[in-house]
Amino acid sequence: MTVLDGILAGVREDLAQRQSEVSLAELKARVSDAPPPLDPLPGFRAPGVSIIAEVKRKSPSKGELAAIPDPAALAAAYAAGGAAAISVLTEQRRFGGSLQDLAAVRAEVDVPVLRKDFIVTPYQLWEARAWGADLALLMVVSLPGGLLDELHGLALELGLTPLVETHTEDEIARAAELGAEVIGINARDLTTLEVDRAVFQKLAPHLPESSVRIAESGVAGPEDVAEYRRWGADVVLVGEALVRSGDPRSSIREFIGS
Ligand SMILES: O=P(O)(O)OC[C@@H](O)[C@@H](O)c1c[nH]c2ccccc12
């Protein structure tokens, strides 16, 4: 069993619990009252590098990263620093996140918000929309067969922007077949948790010309952002370095100016 298999088993148990508490019909009713999602594409396509700043308490590779008692305040600092979007980890067991964090961030900031989770069912996309997300992460590695297509289509129907995450050339080919507009390359292999930023350098040339190119993971400082930029990233997604920074607002400014 890989690390990812273990994470997904926990995700499915937690999902079953939530589904027993809130029906899909109830979620759909909430969505019909919710305002339309924001479009992150103008921010992602703006000149220079754009940053997605992540609210991340812990991770399977590093354990506890930061306490984050007030995720909305952290997100406000990210937005003040110029983040193009905020990513909120909502997975509970390994990352210490929740849908409450997503809602708190949504209520605080005007920039687009990404639900970062292991999304494997339509129900989770309805949840994302009901709790105020504008984007939803779809990881190719955990969506075999037609499931990727189905969830990508549903996300678009719900007005969410799908961020399709890849880690291999085959996964990029699957993302391209879908016509995905926003494609991430995760430098972290989720089956082993090893980070190698050069994976982005190697794979970026295979991304479709028209897609928004997102480099995910492994940024320690501005020089790493600059390197991803040289390798063709439009957007860089940063978690750990920002939650550990004493001054996330200045850190983002530095990343953008790098
Ligand atoms: O903390 P880092 O190394 O800056 O990484 C952030 C982000 O890329 C990482 O949290 C991530 C990328 N893809 C994921 C999928 C699920 C959970 C987490 C992730």
UniProtKB/TrEMBL annotation:
It is an enzyme of class 4 (lyase). This is Indole-3-glycerol phosphate synthase. PROSITE patterns: IGPS. It catalyses: 1-(2-carboxyphenylamino)-1-deoxy-D-ribulose 5-phosphate + H(+) = (1S,2R)-1-C-(indol-3-yl)glycerol 3-phosphate + CO2 + H2O. The lineage of its organism: Bacteria, Bacillati, Actinomycetota, Actinomycetes, Pseudonocardiales. Its EC number is 4.1.1.48. It comes from the Bacteria. It comes from Lentzea roselyniae. Pathway: Amino-acid biosynthesis; L-tryptophan biosynthesis; L-tryptophan from chorismate: step 4/5. CDD domains: IGPS. Residues 4-255 form the Indole-3-glycerol phosphate synthase domain. The gene is trpC_1. Belongs to the TrpC family. Keywords: Amino-acid biosynthesis, Aromatic amino acid biosynthesis, Decarboxylase, Lyase, Tryptophan biosynthesis.
